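Folding Task

Wanted — backbone structure
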Amino acid sequence: MDEALPGVTVSDTQSFDTDVLVIGAGPVGLALSLSLGLCGHRVIMVERDGSRGPQPRAKTLNMRSLTHLRRWGLAQKVREASPTPDDLPTDIVFQTRLYGHHIATLPNIYFRGNSHAGDLRFCEPSEWIPQYKVEEVIKTRLDELACVQQEYGTQLLGFSQNDDGVTASFQKGDEEEFTLRAKFIVGADGGSSKVREIIGGKLEGRYAYACNYNMVLRIPELNKNPPANRGIMHWLINEDSPGIMGPIGELWYIAKRLPRGDSGMTEEQIDRYLQGIIGRKVDFEVMALDPWYAHELIADTYRDRRAFIAGDACQLRPPFGGYGMNMGLGDAADLAWKLGAVLAGWGGEGLLDSYEYERGQVHRWTVDEAVANYAVLSADLLRKDLEDPGSEGQTAREALGREAVEQKRREFHTIGLVLGYHYGGSPIVSGGDDLGAPVAEEYDPVAVPGKLVPHFWLAPGVSVYDRFGPGLTLLTREQASDGVTAFRLAASALSVPLEILTIPHEAAAFFPEALVLARPDEHIAWQGDRVSSEEALVVMRKSIGRAGRQTEREDA
């Protein structure tokens, strides 16, 4: 079999300390390391910080991310780790103040909880859980994998690469510098990525165009006497203390935009602001403070030969819409199966070439959506007379309620972007070139090259995705036996792992053609009604990044 990249073969392990060096132990680095490790690939994950505590950041884990976690065996464990009680309404509540006048409610956002368990479009509802809890769950599973080594308190100093691999230098505390040799290196090291800097990548777009302040506070009064209208997020609209807040277990998160020139708040200012946003004086304890800037940035390159970047190293956007951690997990899932296929010997360099196109396209759509969401915050919704106790106030609140729901609905009903994103036009996808940008609120689960395989249940609790393996999967109607034979022969010639699944009659409406070739990440690489053995070989070569190559075994 032809080698996917010079120097990378299944048996070639003696000259390398590991297969993949992962820089960064946030959710992206953890997920990438886990996905590779579960397939038996050797990983060394390096994190500059010695420990990671609660951060007042990402809390939305969407349906697509939960599907990745399901594939890694962690979806249920993540749900069990969530501090969000089952009886908390999955609503966005618009009010003047937390203990003020109700304006409007957006119900059942993000498709979380039991109310959507019967939705056939996905196998895993979303979850409301802080990022650090997700990291804890993934790390616990990572600790069980002997092929994954974790190094905390260790800083990447630099690296060089050649046709065979990457040599990186590190320092741990005051110890002497040391080097590690790997076949690949991935920078999951955030917005100030060292890996991106070394490969010459630059972030392009608007930088730090607005300053914001996140807080995580312990406020006992709010747990003893919760507001009348409970939800996972409250948009508080008033003249003196506009902002957003919500519960995360026993704690509360609060987010506000800071005036230009400010970069933080004193405890006295926090106290005064809390009294305004809540509507009464409360005792509080500061658990975490996090000033952050809104960016609209995408890297100009995601790869230099054997070095890649993922997550916030690729793009930075406002957090409105809950895309940050979810986008990073998507990067990890995409890059992991491609690196894994190359390391296993059946994937070609075209797989690695496709990473920037596929994820870059999704990043652009998502950054645009997040920036549009960020354009309308609590202060931007302020209207005259909102807190008037009489009829004028009631009229003002009803009018704003209709406007707020109309303006903010697409930020929270995002199934079209979460499940409707696609890789149409990718160099490893046959078809889908004319697909446009997804629409946030619209998702039509029908098989199209580049899109997700439409979800269906094979049996109670058994998703079609549960049957996907580390290689390709052919979904077929029973009458397409000739096509199955053609793809079996192609898979054998190329040494590609291939699963065969029969499309049940009740799911046939989702599949307009009889044969669908799917990738490990559940995206469609090709579809058709019939295929010859020669055509199947061409399709499969393209799908695994080896288009135009031929092996001795194929010639034979």
